[in-house]
Amino acid sequence: MVPRTTLPTLTGLLVFQPLKRRYCAECRRGPLPLLALEDGAPRCLDCADLGHLVFLPSGDTALTRRSREESTLSAVVVRFNRRKSRYERQGVLVEEAALARAEQRCLADAEARRRRRVRDARRRAAQDVLFAQAFAAEILRLFPGCPAARARAIALHASERGSGRVGRSAAGRALTEGAVTSAVVASVRHLDTPYDRLLMSGVPRHEARRRITAAVATVLRGWSEAGIGSTG
């Protein structure tokens, strides 16, 4: 009736998806999409007292597990894979009410996960705001002449989560002078010098950087020296 090979080691009842046309040995109905074996003879699900169960395909592990937990009666559905010479699990048969309860449990979990993701996102956003503020404050400490709006823009850009920029590095998170200065230099390079135009015109990156070194230094010197002697 079924291929002569080792059946899967599964607990509980087994139901088969036949590869050939099979008919119920009791009521003669068929061909059967699913069948149970009793004494080696095929039975339709109704004759095997499984007709009230509904089929849940494999794929959602949590839903399958909970459906079986909720169902008083259940069966594992398998089909023979000729190429691999083995039975493979296709899903389960469970009580319809049990499936509905399992779906509600999974939906409740999904909603809980969604709420947790929202809370985590809000917490990370608040952390990012505080860090960007600290980064901007450190820029202004090192470069008091840097406009406050520019310092905030540099900090936000450098510390954007997932960007891989210097503000997300270990040194950046520690607000080291080197990391903060690197962020400022990058901003000046792109916004206050012809660096980007040089790249677009085909100038190699290292040569383009060499050409704008003096311009970058001038801006940084102006921002560093501003405010010196303004108090006292």
From TrEMBL:
<protein>
    <submittedName>
        <fullName>DUF2293 domain-containing protein</fullName>
    </submittedName>
</protein>
<feature type="domain" description="DUF2293">
    <location>
        <begin position="139"/>
        <end position="223"/>
    </location>
</feature>
<dbReference type="InterPro" id="IPR018744">
    <property type="entry name" value="DUF2293"/>
</dbReference>
<dbReference type="Pfam" id="PF10056">
    <property type="entry name" value="DUF2293"/>
</dbReference>
